[in-house]
Specification:
The chain crosses the membrane at residues 40-62, 74-93, 105-129, 150-168, 211-233, 254-274, 286-304. It holds the Pfam family 7tm_4. Residues 55-304 form the G-protein coupled receptors family 1 profile domain. InterPro entries: GPCR_Rhodpsn (IPR000276), GPCR_Rhodpsn_7TM (IPR017452), Olfact_rcpt (IPR000725). With 335 residues, this protein is mainly alpha-helical. The protein has one domain (20-325): Up-down Bundle (Rhopdopsin 7-helix transmembrane proteins). It contains eleven helices and four strands, in the order ββαααβαααβααααα. It has helices spanning 38-65, 72-89, 92-101, 108-141, 146-149, 152-178, 195-201, 207-240, 245-278, 282-306, 309-325; strands at residues 20-21, 25-27, 105-107, 182-183. The strands form two sheets. A two-stranded antiparallel ribbon has the order 1-4. A two-stranded antiparallel sheet has the order 2-3. Helix 2 (72-89) packs antiparallel against helix 10 (282-306). 35% of the residues are buried.
């Protein structure tokens, strides 16, 4: 049971004697109640985390070291990889440590910190995907003006704007949670500190706070996806006007990886949200949360590297330089 900084107090709308004020710790939900399964799960998630970090670092390294990839599309991709590393690092290391130490406790300050960074990087992912959709829209629908429109200053401004808006969203969530002073329980029905879970635990009236969060979700969630849908509507319309089938395939291939990542990100996020609303089982909702917090960031580098010849060639050249520096023969085909 979490410690209390103050005495127990009754909230106006509840009579449960367990209502708590001054909570200093919360309890996170374990993935499994079986102690023998904990080391197996810890090893699995550690492997997935390492693959995620290594894969995204390779994307960043390939883009930064290869002059062929110094373009707006790959500049945005490297920032997306950086955001994915931060996104998965806010939840998975803590979960792995808890499995190894058989602890479910997270401090109040730690919970707020984790929640802030989780919202920050999730929103950065959201914003960058919409920026990348705009980049593909300009490249396909206005190819002759692409270099003029997507100049380095605009690209840098769009990335900074994405981080600033995401930081604003994160701080607004933190301010809302800081206003909660009374809780019915300290057990969070997830493996990380989810803002919606903390609102559900509050024993005070959270109607206004929930409306603010829903409004923020509509602004920071619906507007980016609307921009993505509009961009791809224009892209598809432009591609369909291309006379040759080869030209159509080439145009589709330039945005295929991004479209796959968009579907994966929003698909798993939507499944996770619907599961938390519809499913009465917290563990089923937690499985859905694992999909978009662990699996999606891990798959993104594979999607871009497997479907993108430029990334493959850059990784091969990078590997060749590393092997050559160790006086070994490169075995990677230089495409």
């Amino acid at each position: 049971m979490a410690q209390q900084r103050g005495s127990a107090a009754q909230c106006p709308s509840y009579t449960d004697p367990q209502n708590l004020t001054g909570v200093s710790e919360f309890l996170l939900l374990e993935l499994s109640d079986d102690p023998e399964l904990q080391p197996v799960l810890a090893g699995l998630f550690l492997s997935m985390y390492l693959v995620t970090v290594l894969g995204n670092l390779l994307i960043i390294l390939a883009v930064s070291s290869d002059s062929h990839l110094h373009t707006p599309m790959y500049f945005f991709l490297s920032n997306l990889s950086l955001a994915d590393i931060g996104f998965t690092s806010t939840t998975i290391p803590k979960m792995i440590v808890d499995m190894q130490t058989h602890s479910r406790v997270i401090a109040y300050a730690g919970c707020l910190t984790q929640m802030s960074f989780f919202v920050l990087f999730a929103c950065v992912d959201d914003m960058l995907l919409s920026v990348m959709a705009y980049d593909r829209f300009v490249a396909i629908c206005h190819p002759l003006q692409y270099r003029v429109i997507m100049h380095p200053r605009l690209c840098g401004f769009l990335v900074l704007l994405s981080f600033f808006i995401s930081l604003l969203d994160s701080q607004l969530h933190s301010l809302i949670v800081l206003q909660l002073t009374c809780f019915r329980d300290v057990a969070i029905s997830n493996f990380f500190c989810d803002p919606s879970q903390l609102l559900h635990l509050s024993c005070s009236d959270t109607f206004i706070n929930e409306m603010v969060i829903y409004f923020m979700g509509a602004i920071f969630g619906c507007l980016p996806i609307s921009g993505i849908l509009f961009s791809y509507y224009k892209i598809v319309s432009s591609i369909l006007r291309v006379p040759s089938s080869g030209g159509k395939c080439k145009a589709f291939s330039t945005c295929g990886s991004h479209l796959a990542v968009v579907c994966l990100f929003y698909g798993t996020g939507l499944v996770g949200y619907l599961s938390s609303v519809v499913s009465p089982s917290p563990r089923k909702s937690m499985v859905a949360s694992v999909m978009y917090t662990v699996v999606t960031p891990m798959l993104n580098p594979f999607i871009y590297s497997l479907r993108n010849r430029d990334i493959q060639s850059a990784l091969c050249r990078l590997h060749g330089r590393i092997v050559k520096s160790h006086l070994l023969h490169p075995f990677c085909y230089m495409g």
